[in-house]
User: What shape does this take?
Amino acid sequence: MTRKMVWASIGVVLIVAGITAVWGETQHWRVGRGPFWFHGGPMGYIAHELDLSDTQKSQIKTIWDGERPNVAELVHEFASEQKEMDALTSQGMPDEGRIQDVGTREGATLAKLIVEKEKLTSRIYSQVLDPAQQKKADEIRRRWGSRLDKVA
Assistant: This one.
């Protein structure tokens, strides 16, 4: 009977130790250092790939905070145009002219968003990244472009 208790106790200790080790590793991953560093979203991915310092991250955050109102306004405009498009296309026989008009406005808003993105990217390149990081960023953009080509 005592032999069974000893082996059961050893088994419980091993199970608890295993669970604790696994839990500790997953906690390590969640703070952004480990195999799942990309959980920080796009910024976490880029920060990891470019090896950004904390100073560079704060500079990028400051630049983004300055651009956020412009981008938010354009995103809201695009969302309202999309709702208008959804309302037009949910009807039985949509008016082609009105759909064309809303589509043209959506295209113009999307063009403005792309211009804002490029201005933001340009400021980050010129004010934050060093030449080696700029080369890495260019490579990431090329890889992204090739992925879009594969999708198309």
Observations:
- Confidence is low (pLDDT under 50) at residues 28-32, 34-38.
- The radius of gyration is 25 Å.
- Residues 71 and 117 are 8 Å apart (CA to CA).
- The chain is about 85% helix and 0% strand.
